[in-house]
Design brief:
Chain lengths: 126, 126
């Protein structure tokens, strides 16, 4: 990860994350680890199993994320990366899309990839 | 910081940050350091002097932030803290408030306080 352009890495991550979310939500398990944290609309969840259980139990089946902005910054000397996303979430059968903001803290793995250490999601109500 | 409740610390930080922004913007200098990064509506800025120059040159004088949500998570073993904020920004003379999302990565100082290492700000356009 450290050898790649951070903006390119974060954009690739964001595309991978939301396309997995929209097509095969259980596949998100590969992006979290036991120490991973998710705060979803204020609810705190920890660990890959609990996080995937939460994401797969959300009260909608079909959805489509549309990304508006992606910002990234290195998070410090441990070579993590912060990714900040804004966009819209379209649920099947709903007329209006929901606006959301989400941040990820990506940490490198020994294999040269990365995983989601921190994840905070909020809907932006009008 | 490590001895305090993270939710209490993040809430206190958020109140301090936005009240300083709304009443004495140049006073935000005390919260950043040379390594600090700000991404403001996609524009990347580094260092306390450049960050404060940006914040004090925004094209409005009077403003008032209203906070809707504050979420926080520890960012890793270095005992930093991620703070994720959503809210509204009311500018003087404008009828409608602007929705925004912002994230801060707070890092501890040797004096037991903390400073803003990462700061990403986005308006959430309707």
């Amino acid at each position: 990860m450290s050898q790649m352009d951070p903006d390119a890495v974060s954009k690739a991550f964001v595309e991978h994350y939301y396309s997995t979310f929209d097509t095969n939500r259980v596949g998100l398990a590969g992006l979290y680890q036991e120490a991973s944290m998710l705060t979803f609309e204020g609810q705190k969840i920890q660990g890959v199993q609990s996080i995937v259980a939460k994401l797969t139990s959300l009260p909608f089946q079909q959805c489509k994320h549309h990304i508006s902005t992606v910002d990234c910054q290195p998070s410090g000397p441990a070579s993590g990366m912060l990714v900040f996303v804004s966009g819209n979430l379209q649920l099947a059968g709903e007329e209006h899309a929901l606006k959301f903001s989400q941040m990820f803290h990506l940490m490198p793995t020994p294999q040269g990839s990365f995983y989601v250490f921190n994840d905070i999601f909020r809907l932006n109500y009008a």
